[in-house]
Amino acid sequence: AMVIATLCTAAIAGPMLTSRSYSGYAIVLIGIWAMAELFVIGLWLIRLLLSGGHPIFGVARTLVDEAIRMKIALIFIIGVVLMIPILPILIDAQERLDYRIKFFLNWSLGGMSVLLSLMTVFLVCGSICGEITRKNIFMTMVKPVSRIQYLMGKWLGVALLNMLLLAVSGVGIYTLTQILAQQPVSNPTTPQIELGAVRYEVLTARESAKASPPDGMDFAAELRSRHERLRRENPDEYGERLTAQQRKAIQNRIIAQWYAIGPHESQTYVFENLQPAVERNLPIQLRFKPKMSKAPDDEMVRMGLWINDRPYPIFQGQHIPTEVANDNFHVMSIDPAYVDDQGKIKLRIQNVNLMAPEATFPATISFSPGSGLEMLYNIGSFGPNLVRSLAMIWVRLGFLAMLGVMAGTFLGFPVACLLSFMIYFAAIASNYLKESLRYYAGYSNMNVNLWEKIVLIWSALVSNVGDGKYWEATKIIIRLVGEMFIAIVPEFSTYNPTPLVSDGRVVSMMMLGESAIWVGLVSSGFCLLMAWLIFQRRELAKVTV
Predict the structure, then answer these.
(1) C-alpha closest to that of 229 among 198, 252, 250, 258
(2) Which of 189, 171, 187 is closest to 179 using CA atoms?
(3) pLDDT the model gives residue 418
(4) Using CA atoms, how far apart are residues 361 and 261, in angstroms rounded to an integer?
(5) What is the pLDDT of residues 79-100, one digit of tens each?
């Protein structure tokens, strides 16, 4: 079959490659053939690896064979093999080249992750629940296979199958990304702009440096000063010591004002730890999103920039004004030679029209703290970054596999899948759910210890019931239940590598390590423990006399 598929692919794709109109379809056909062949070879290697006589290997090999026979699992496998090569021909060739590559990376990594997650849940739950329902598990349990070995074998089989599919997908994504990078740019008159964006903003691994206040600016002194003023103005609300919530609110106002620049005013922002950019001698990107309190008619923001007290940018000895669209992200390349001996860049931004200072628009320019103003510098390459992202996705799939194993030990197939998907979607939307619950209920989310938080919640609950606000009390209970549920669900949204890879940001080893510990060891280990405790006590067959 492999030889026949190879000959057919060569016969069809060969002539198509010589035609400009059909070369894209030829690449799709070759990509599907290559990924399918790699999957078949990898499947043979997995069977060879699991050919030993250990009970765990036997159960794992049985599940791998079952995945190829199970129609629903096979559909998802075929979906992954087809989706990645087909995506490039769906991208509009008129878009900027860097946008095309970002689109492909976003949809290929995200779509692959979703398809493999669905396959994992259906395969594990279907395998365990099906064997129990059809009584096939009796043939396994009468052999010298303990119940923990049976559960571990099911997990190992799915984990190896996911590893194979991730490896095949990774090869496909990397190869097609490099092919996309060789496509013509959308604007032939300025190709260096798009090619530079592809090289330095997408196919790279960049670290972010956040802004910090310059020497002489003391946030702590400003916080004390504002606290004293608020105490004089409102002594009933502000005491000698600020609560955690009051302190956070004042700090947020101070930071927001620091990121706001009035007309003809200026602010200074310091970016540290930029030595890697100097060592690699690659451009640094200043990424910023200015937003005016009142935009002019042409929706343009005009300001002046100084880097380490030198005007920037300079052209033929003249300081060029910075004019960018309002409320949009922009990227400016900065030569690493601007970094000083301490690895710092001091950026001063002035809200002024350099060409005509008297025509400066009377509005405040502000930046969102953090992501609205940052320096990005290269610390790695695209290939290793993609490998780390695939490893992080594999850790998440490993948790889903163990979750499916746990659900299959005591639930039927439909309910086991429903429970697994409920936890899966809650893990994906964990940050959103936290924010929603925080604004939903009627008590303060203060940074206090556990006992103080219990007292605070109980006081709010009793107060609402005493005042007849029964719905507010019910909302507090709903929030408590929701927060307890989210607390035991791993945060997939925190360990999501897809947006980082598509934006050319580094998926660090620290992030991968945290994911492996909290998702791979703690959460998966908890599911394994629960699965073993439940399955160990489950009566699979009844003795009838």
Answers:
(1) 250
(2) 171
(3) 93
(4) 12
(5) 998 999 999 888 888 888 989 9
